[in-house]
């Protein structure tokens, strides 16, 4: 079984010590830094915007994995590309013209990610597979960190893996929400390539060790 890539989610960091927490990620075995942008409309919470993202970018040496929980994300693609996003994820539920939006993300030189809420079936991706670099499966309802993992995600991940293989897609599968050492190995086994982890990393006694354990799939 391959080791998953790990994307610690900045949402669970200490915002009064962001530079310290970003340095921890730099020194760790993390592969990305996951950035959650929430607009208070698509999700019932507001996180942070460009000034914070730009400050983080100045210190972060890992690629930025930007998760847009906003309505009409197409209005901000250039701005997030300019702000240093390596991957831009848009929600399936927020995009009227998903194919156009994903194509535009690639034109901007970023990798194109599409996010599925827990209730959104994978079948809606069948006709846009060729413009997707990453599918992000929400394993909680988006908007908040620290929620419980939805068990159905294992089956959804395995079905998506199968659908991508059948369709000849090399898109990666990413999982976000309630990820911890208790479910990491099973998610990887089901087909996940990238694991986002907020609370289980930043609330751990040693976040860098937590990142390594997620990667190595230590059994709980
Ligand atoms: C939730 C966000 C997540 C969140 C994950 O809407 O998309 O990235 O930070 O946090 P945990 O890992 O604590 O569930
Ligand atoms: Zn996220």
Structural features, described:
- There is one protein chain.
- With 220 residues, the chain is an alpha/beta fold.
- It has a single domain (5-216), classed as Aldolase class I (TIM Barrel, Alpha-Beta Barrel), CATH 3.20.20.70.
- Helices cover 32% and strands 20% of the residues.
- Strands 1-8-7-6-5-4-3-2 form an 8-stranded parallel sheet.
- The radius of gyration is 16 Å and the shape is globular.
- The structure holds D-xylitol-5-phosphate and zinc ion.
- D-xylitol-5-phosphate is lined by residues 9, 11-12, 34, 36, 67, 140, 142-147, 176-179, 196-200.
Which CATH top level class fits?
A: Alpha Beta
By oligomeric state, this entry counts as single chain
Please outline the major beta sheet. Answer: 8 strands, parallel
Gross CATH architecture: Alpha-Beta Barrel
Strands across the major sheet, in which order? 1-8-7-6-5-4-3-2
Query: What share of the residues does DSSP label as strand, in percent?
Result: 15-25%
Q: Please give the alpha-carbon distance between the first and last residues.
A: 17 Å
Please write the string of helix (H) and strand (E) elements: EHEHEHEHEEHEHEHH
Structural class: alpha/beta
Total count of domains? 1
Helical segment count: 8
Bound molecules: D-xylitol-5-phosphate, zinc ion
pLDDT averaged residue by residue: 97
Number of strands: 8
| Overall shape | globular
In short:
With 220 residues, the chain is of the alpha/beta class.
Summarize this structure as a short list of keywords or feature phrases.
single chain, 220 residues, alpha/beta, TIM Barrel, 8 helices, 8 strands, binds D-xylitol-5-phosphate, binds zinc ion, Ribulose-phosphate 3-epimerase, EC 5.1.3.1
